[in-house]
């Protein structure tokens, strides 16, 4: 990585789970965010104004591809700010973007359907997790409402619209970052997690109005279905990582999700 820059540049790890992200610093003035082997999808995200601007892409002799983006000073959104107009408008822009959808299809992505999600959950949950009454109840809910979770609308979904993936810059710009889990699917996947996590139920209709949708029985069921599915996947993931406290926290949320 260092040989891409002169000696006046300092390269430091940027953290993250993959260890593939770095920060390039020069004289405490210039700052770039570098990442190794990022998907070509990043270029389209940059062109659409959804992530910070892509400065350059370089291929190394070993075949690795390095991308550099402008480093923007900012912060993650607060829980309260997720209920704001900017979030709804940017998520609408993402879900309506034809260039994003075209690029993901070119990269070999096919729509992720509820049937595939349910099969993955049924095969990944171990017996100990399934024996938990709330988990068993959630699995039954997914099975009994599979047909109601089907949707013809297929868009690019981020897949993890957690508040710490939203970057609000010092220049009052909003970006959605960390697109490694991007999928083609029902927009209810993103909408459900966001609304259940950050927006009071009495404000759902108003928030969706800013996004451009009407809250009806179909959308409400699909959001509930996908939130329950993601909760079950998260429970097993945390158990596999021995994060028992976090696993228990999500199990306790299941009755709230199913009662909505």
Automatic annotation (TrEMBL):
Gene3D superfamilies: 3.90.1200.10. SUPFAM superfamilies: Protein kinase-like (PK-like). Residues 17-215 form the Aminoglycoside phosphotransferase domain. InterPro entries: Aminoglycoside_PTrfase, CcrZ_PhaseVar_Mediator, Kinase-like_dom_sf. Signal peptide: none annotated. This is DUF1679 domain-containing protein. It comes from Peribacillus glennii.
């Amino acid at each position: 990585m260092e040989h891409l820059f002169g000696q006046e540049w300092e390269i430091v790890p940027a953290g993250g789970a993959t260890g593939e992200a770095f920060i390039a610093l020069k004289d405490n003035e210039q700052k770039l965010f570098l990442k190794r082997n990022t998907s070509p999808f990043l270029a389209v995200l940059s062109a659409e104004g959804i992530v910070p601007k892509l400065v350059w892409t370089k291929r190394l002799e070993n075949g690795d591809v390095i991308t550099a983006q402008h480093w923007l000073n900012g912060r993650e959104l607060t829980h309260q700010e997720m209920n704001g107009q900017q979030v709804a408008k940017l998520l609408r822009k993402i879900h309506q973007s034809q260039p994003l959808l075209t690029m993901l299809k070119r990269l070999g992505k096919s729509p992720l359907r509820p049937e595939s999600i349910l099969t993955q959950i049924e095969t990944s949950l171990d017996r100990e997790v399934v024996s938990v009454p709330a988990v068993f109840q959630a699995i039954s809910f997914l099975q009994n409402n599979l047909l109601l979770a089907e949707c013809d609308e297929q868009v690019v979904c981020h897949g993890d619209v957690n508040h710490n993936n939203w970057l609000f810059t010092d220049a009052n710009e909003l970006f959605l970052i960390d697109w490694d889990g991007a999928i083609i699917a029902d927009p209810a996947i993103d909408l459900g997690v966001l609304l259940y996590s950050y927006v009071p139920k009495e404000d759902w209709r108003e928030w969706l109005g800013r996004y451009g949708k009407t809250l009806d029985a179909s959308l409400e069921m699909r959001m509930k279905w996908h939130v329950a599915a993601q909760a079950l996947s998260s429970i097993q993931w945390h158990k596999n990582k021995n994060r028992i406290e976090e696993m228990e926290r999500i199990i306790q949320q299941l009755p709230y999700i199913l009662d909505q």
